[in-house]
Amino acid sequence: MQLDRLITFHKTLGDKTRLRIIALLNSGPLHGQAIAGKLALTPATISHHLTKLRDCGLVYERREKNSVYYHLDEKKLLQMSQAVIKMGDETMDKQLVTIEEKNKVLQNFLTTDGKIKTLPAQRKKKLIILDYLARKLEKGRLYEEKEVNEFIKQFHEDFATIRREFIMCYFMTRENNKYEMNPEEMWKIGYSN
User: Fold this and answer.
1) Which end of the chain is more exposed for a tag (fewer CB within 10 A), N or C?
2) Per CATH, is 3-80 categorized as 1.10.10.10?
3) Residue 1: which pLDDT band, with cuts at 50, 70 and 90?
């Protein structure tokens, strides 16, 4: 599951009105006016929240004569709700390497001034190189995409591939073209003694 979609899902659910709409739709489909009446809110407010829920894929609409009925996509709700646990399982599927393995890979794939000679094809070795780079970035800081590219270019010319790997291997999270380091516990690599 892409981390950005998961974040959007949880942000969408982080609203009391939207949670109340989901609770109502759990009992069956309703049209916008009925939802507005039950929640004592204006139709415009309900329309706004339903749009957010629809964009996230949690509700869908069906037209019946002159009314549009909103349905809860229970399967999608369950899938997205369980994705956090799945993501935890995925991040627990770490490549464990010893310090000796790490040092050998760094010696083989880095120049004496710390630049990357070539990106390793083998996943475990690639993760060691990504880890090497990620540790040079500042935790808690939001980076513009251009800043991430410039940072990577200091070490290797293929900044697009490395930036994509940072996201895919959970070293970083991207939202609205802003990048931020994830906690090390999420990274796809771990070291054993």
Assistant:
1) C
2) yes
3) very low
